[in-house]
Amino acid sequence: MKRYARLAATLGQRIEQGLYRPGDRLPSVRALSEEHGVSISTVQQAYRVLEDAGLVEPRPKSGFFVPEQRRVPALPAMTRPAQRPVDISQWDQVLEQVRTSPGDNLIQLGRGTPDISSPSLKPLLRAMANAARRSDLRALGYEGIQGSLPLREQIARLMLDSGCRVPPSEIIVTTGCQEALAITLRAICQPGDIVAIDSPSFHGAMQALKAHGLKALEIPTDPVNGVSLEALELAMEQWPVKLIMLTPNCNNPLGYIMPDTRKRALLSLAQRYDVPILEDDVYGELAYAYPRPRSIKSFDSDDRVLLASSFSKTVAPGLRTGWVVPGRYLERILHLKYIASGTCAPQPQMALAEFVGGGHYEPHIRRMRAQYQRHRDLMSDWVSRYFPDGTRASRPQGGFMLWVELDPRFDSVRLNQALRPECVQVAAGSIFSASGKYRNCLRMNYSSPELPRIEEAVRRVGAAATRLLEETQALESSPEPA
Predict the structure, then answer these.
(1) What is the chain's mean pLDDT, rounded?
(2) Residue 67 CB neighbour total at 10 angstroms
(3) How far apart are CA 33 and CA 276, in angstroms?
(4) For 264-295, b where at least 16 C-beta lie within 10 A, e where not — what string?
(5) What is the 3-state secondary structure (H, E, C) of 334-367?
(6) Domain check: are 60 and 153 in the same one?
(7) Which residue of 64, 118, 254, 401 shows the fewest CB atoms closer than 10 Å?
(8) Which residue, 190, 204, 200, is CA-closest to 240?
(9) Residue 173's beta-bridge partner residues?
(10) Can you tell me the distance from the alpha carbon of 284 to that of 322, in angstroms, rounded to the nearest whole number?
(11) In this protein, which residues make up the domain named HTH gntR-type (predicted)?
(12) To the nearest whole percent, how much of the chain has pLDDT over 90?
């Protein structure tokens, strides 16, 4: 770790521990330079890192201060889904969300889209132009079925940060993480099989279950520690679970990072019942804390964990470039990849290999982590300010999604209908449940750098939610007709 990063981590820890309180003036640049024996430019760079993370704010001619404390909503309670296998529904609601094209008039708080306007992506645009200009025309031909070797080499290098030592020969490039999830389900499960999932869970993964005729067994999930291992073990004793599928790092939609002790315990449970694990790590690189969290795959000793990920959330969704590390299912998944979609487009793979290999990926990720963490704090404050009293919200440890829980009588599907004239869309909570639970919840995206526009959108959502809840309460309190 570089000196400025070490100093930033030290100061950040002091702020988090309360040694510097909200509103306190922090030591001067010169004082820190003398205290830590580093240059003034090192201290200035450390303060810039903390400023990007939202932990300090500069005041002209006054120095650096700890920001005044923002309001943070209470966390949602442990979820309590029906613990029995169910068929997946909610496709009509998912379709309504994903069929809407991005436009200037509609603010899509419900979509899982990262910020693609960052200047740190300019090297990627140059790499794409370079790939298109290659005189050997490789960008117009077929790539190998397993994907570009230079890209797989870079993916293998990136996976070291999560504790995984995987050779490029064990990586399959896919058309986004969605294809990785879909072909993995087909490789392991037969129609009618039961898959244990965290709850709430990513709607795309559940629709993949639906497409293959699989049943979902939703497991109670804590917004801080993740899926309940006790409930999972009880479910596996009671039902013939064929696969465990979950997102343990920077979970979508709750944002938690499962502690390493629980990841190890989960793997041990899967080994005891001889069940494979499908780990969706698509947000893992966007953890706010450094180093990034370890994957369950990094603890895997018998190749039962299949890890799926992509560049869609870390770089850009339009590249449609993901991957899967299939473990013992390599040959089966490679065959399914061949018959489902064949090879992936070469140009995005060539551009990503150049972008990552050229040293541009890590600075981009650092910038995005700091931006998203700062935006999380802002959106949490806006929810506290604009939403009805008693609203709860997650405290994401990475990524760019906030899960909001309102009064049990609230209906987020009705909310989306009320928001149409306001040109705002959220993700209704019911699409994150196989059985349509969480109608009183919603998910919002805070990746956009257009903060005034997003704050106004959140204000509109809060105002509409308040109005709908008041209408519901009024109907309930009105006297029954004689």
Answers:
(1) 92
(2) 14
(3) 52
(4) eebbebbeeeebbbbbbbbbbbbbbeeebbbb
(5) HHHHHHHCCCCCHHHHHHHHHHHHCCCHHHHHHH
(6) no
(7) 118
(8) 190
(9) 323
(10) 13
(11) 1-69
(12) 74
pLDDT in tens, 101-151: 666 688 999 999 999 999 999 999 999 998 888 767 777 778 889 999 999
What is the mean pLDDT of the segment spanning 7-20?
Answer: 81
Q: Please tell me the distance from the alpha carbon of residue 52 to that of residue 368, in angstroms, as a whole number.
A: 10
Return d(Cα 343, Cα 422) in angstroms, integer: 42
Q: What is the pLDDT of residue 104?
A: 62
CATH number of the domain bearing residue 18 = 1.10.10.10
State pTM to two decimals.
0.85
pLDDT value of position 449: 92
Closest to 223 in 3D by CA, of 265, 258, 262: 258
| Chain Cα centroid distance, residue 285 | 9
Q: Is residue 72 part of a domain?
A: no
Identify whether residues 156 and 297 lie together within a single domain: yes
Residues 301 and 449 occupy one common structural domain: no
Number of separate domains in the chain: 3
**Least confident among 7-16, 215-224, 374-383, 428-437:** 7-16
**Is pLDDT at 482 greater than 70 in this prediction?**
no
Are 94 and 209 in contact by the 8 Å Cβ rule? The answer is no
Q: Do 461 and 351 belong to one domain?
A: no
**Contacts of residue 95, Cβ cutoff 8 Å, sequence gap at least 6:** none
Question: For position 89, what pLDDT does the model report?
Answer: 79
Q: Residue 51: inside a domain, yes or no?
A: yes
